[in-house]
From TrEMBL:
GO cellular component: cytosol
Lineage: Bacteria, Bacillati, Bacillota, Clostridia, Peptostreptococcales
Pfam families: Cupin_2, HTH_3
Transmembrane segments: none
UniProt-recorded name of the protein: Transcriptional regulator, contains XRE-family HTH domain
Highest taxon, organism lineage: Bacteria
GO molecular function: DNA binding; DNA-binding transcription factor activity
PROSITE patterns attached to this UniProt entry: HTH_CROC1
Length: 182
């Protein structure tokens, strides 16, 4: 928020609120309200603040992208596709303020004797599939790969593929896709 950026820059420059208020002929309480995002400053006040802090006005309008995004298990975005009994849980954000993330990581559980889809799928993204628990067969056209706990398979973009759980226990898989497709 704008006020947080003003406060951050002011403190970085070691300027006290009262000191800044005197230099620009505004009350300390007015500046405090701006910094707490309780009020929006006028353009004139913003120009004065920028001059005292020796920064261009646009510096206050920049939104810093968070360096980390914490996604709690219960807050994951879930996707259920028709004609499957698999639920995809997104471990990475699907959107960021300035666009999309550079990768997508999805957790999925494959029920016993189930396929990931009715037919082969393919996408314009590379994918790495990692088996956390159970056993998974991955079909790339006619080629079959058997993956056990801890095994992974890297699949190049536009390669037709689908997964199958050949056992009577649930298989857990993580898929990393870059660039994102969902």
């Amino acid at each position: 928020m704008l006020g947080e950026r003003v406060r951050e820059i002011r403190k970085k420059n070691n300027i006290k609120l009262v000191e800044m208020a005197k230099q620009i002929n505004l009350s300390p309480s007015y500046l405090s309200q701006i910094e707490r995002d309780l009020i929006s400053p006028s353009l004139s006040a913003l120009r004065k603040i920028a001059k005292v802090l020796n920064v261009p006005i646009y510096e206050f309008l920049k939104e810093d992208e968070k360096k980390a995004i914490h996604i709690k298990k219960e807050k994951r975005i879930k996707l259920e596709l028709p004609d499957t009994d698999i639920v995809y849980e997104f471990l990475t954000p699907t959107r960021l303020r300035n666009g999309t993330p550079n990768m997508e990581i999805i957790f999925m559980k494959l029920n016993p004797f189930s396929w990931s889809s009715e037919d082969f799928s393919y996408h314009a993204a590379d994918e790495c599939i990692f088996v956390i628990r159970g056993e998974v067969e991955i079909y790339l056209g006619e080629t079959k790969y058997n993956l056990l706990n801890g095994d992974s398979l890297y699949i190049k973009e536009n390669t037709r593929h689908r997964l199958y759980n050949p056992k009577n226990t649930v298989a857990e898989v993580i898929s990393c896709i870059s660039p994102p497709i969902y």
